Amino acid sequence: MKIAIVSGNDEGPTKLNAFDNALSNAGIGDVNLIKVSSMLEGNTEIQELPKLKAGAMVNCVLSEITSDNPGDVITAVVCIAIGETLGCVVETSGINRDNDELTSEAREMVKYMMKKRNVEIKELYLEYSTAKVKDTASAIASVVYLNEKIVES
Asked: By CB distance 3.0 to 4.6 Å, which of 4, 72, 94, 129 could disulfide with 49?
């Protein structure tokens, strides 16, 4: 299994436009995202996001947060743990929360999921995006599940 980890943030005239702009900023704005739960195959490989086919149906774990309250600080986080037999992904987000607190929370959640499954963590990755809201902003972090059907050749 191959995945890419991306993040982005942006402003827009509406919440929907801000979210769409954040997706584009992360490189996943021209595809259809299908939110899935948080499981990965063992020894999952992480790679850079390739060019995706426009309109492709793309599985992902998505953390997103949007605010139209100027001055808010918004943060979206994903954390990935990979073991030999399986991996887990968690997502969290917050408004006006300390980044260290949010990222620590994500790490602890994914460690718990792996411990509950009796799987030793070989690799741990964390990605987040933070933005200070000017008018209307969105932040996203995502784990994108890759396959040959969605990658532009």
From this structure: 4
Within-domain flag for 153 = no
Domain CATH code at residue 136: 3.50.20.10
Tokens of 82: 């990979």
Phi then psi for residue 101, to 5 deg, are -65, -45
Is 21 tagged catalytic? Answer: no
Domain that holds residue 48: 2-146
Active-site position among 7, 9, 38, 142: 38
Question: Is 9 one of the catalytic residues?
Answer: no
Active-site option among 32, 69, 99, 147: 32
Q: What is the pLDDT along the chain (153 residues), one digit of tens a residue?
A: 999 999 999 999 999 999 999 999 999 999 999 999 999 999 999 999 999 999 999 999 999 999 999 999 999 999 999 999 999 999 999 999 999 999 999 999 999 999 999 999 999 999 999 999 999 999 999 999 999 999 998
Number of domains in the chain: 1
Give the SS3 label for residue 115.
helix
* Cβ–Cβ < 8 Å for 80, 125: yes
The answer to whether residue 38 is catalytic is: yes
Residue of 25, 63, 91, 138 with catalytic role: 91
